[in-house]
Structure formats: structure tokens, C-alpha cells
Design a protein that fits this description.
Length: 196
């Protein structure tokens, strides 16, 4: 084999080793990112709410429902929960809020956050609302709208309907946050959670 061919072979082997190294480093990270996206459907009973976790959760939030049956704890809203793995400040970002059947429909709804198991077994709501830091100040209710319904305000107020909302709360390790979706139609919403 000529020296030129030997050099070509050495270069090809080097390229192969570099590619293998790159795939070894980045492939697990890519698969972890894909696995981090969780899909859940909200529950009408907050105690049976599916879990959102650190990372991104795609939520299908059921439509508003009322119940006249006092013996059955069914709330008008639907729920997803998050349990804080550590004590600290957590940031929740709600985005891509849209009607499931028609993503282009102009639509308005709201999201609230609660904590604590209610001592009254028949109660369909958790113990208390969380007052959360968001654009425009602190609020108990996050007003949401679909991207098609969004009109950018000159200055954001807590009562403005936004297509993306960020909520910041301080939580203790093991504390559960119940996220309440209040919408007249089934919607989808991206919920991204990170520890600050």
C-alpha cells in the first residue's frame, strides 16, 4: 500500500472514531430530551390528578364540567399535579394553549395553582390557592388565551389574557401543587417546569 493510501486510510479511521465519539456523547442526551416530554390528560378529581414533572409535559385539559351530585366529588375544572423534588423556587411556563379540536380557534380560559389536601373528604378543591408571581404582578388566576386570540397589551396586567404565562412559586420538598385548568372546551397546553 502506498504512503498516500495509508494516509487516506488513517484519516478515514480518525473520522470514524470522531463520529463514534460524537454519537456516544450526544445520542443519550437527545433520547433523554425526548423522554422528558410527558403526555397526560387532566382529571376531574384533584386527588387522582396525573403528574407533571421537571421538564415539559403536554397536557390535554378536559372541558369544564359541573356536577349536582353532592355524594361524588367531581369538580367543574380538571387537574394536573406536580410534586417538588427539592425545596426551592420553581418556574412554571404555560404555553401553546389551544382548543384541541381546532388549534386556530380564538379561545380564552384560565389556570390556577393550589396546594394542600382539603380536610373535608367531599371537597372537590385542594386546601388553598397559591398566590403566584407572574407578568404584571402577583395573582391567584392566570388568564390564558390561544395564540390566535392574543393581542399584545401596551403594558401587561395580571388580568390580561396571554398565550404564554410564567408562574414562579417557592415550594418545600414533597409539597404538591395542583394545577387547575378552567376551560369550556378541551384544550391542549404545554407545561414546562424548572427549578430556578
Amino acid at each position: 500500500m502506498s504512503s498516500l493510501n495509508k494516509r487516506k486510510s488513517a484519516v478515514l479511521v480518525s473520522i470514524g472514531l470522531v463520529m463514534t465519539l460524537v454519537l456516544t456523547i450526544f445520542a443519550p442526551a437527545a433520547s433523554m430530551e425526548v423522554q422528558a416530554v410527558r403526555k397526560v390528560t387532566s382529571s376531574y378529581k384533584y386527588k387522582k390528578a396525573p403528574a407533571a414533572r421537571i421538564g415539559t409535559t403536554m397536557v390535554t385539559a378536559r372541558a369544564y364540567k359541573s356536577s349536582n351530585n353532592s355524594k361524588k366529588a367531581v369538580s367543574a375544572v380538571s387537574w394536573v399535579k406536580f410534586t417538588a423534588p427539592k425545596t426551592g423556587t420553581y418556574q412554571f411556563t404555560f404555553s401553546d394553549y389551544a382548543v384541541k379540536a381546532n388549534k386556530n380557534e380564538k379561545f380564552y380560559g384560565s389556570i390556577a395553582m393550589h396546594t394542600g389536601i382539603n380536610k373535608y373528604k367531599s371537597s372537590s378543591y385542594p386546601q388553598e390557592y397559591l398566590r403566584i408571581k407572574t407578568k404584571g404582578g402577583r395573582a391567584y388566576i392566570l388568564c390564558m388565551c390561544s395564540p390566535s386570540a392574543y393581542n399584545k397589551p401596551a403594558k401587561v396586567h395580571i388580568s390580561d389574557y396571554l398565550s404564554s404565562r410564567t408562574a414562579t412559586v417557592k415550594l418545600k420538598k414533597g409539597q404538591i401543587v395542583f394545577i387547575n385548568f378552567n376551560n369550556s372546551k378541551a384544550v391542549t397546553c404545554k407545561v414546562k417546569i424548572k427549578k430556578k
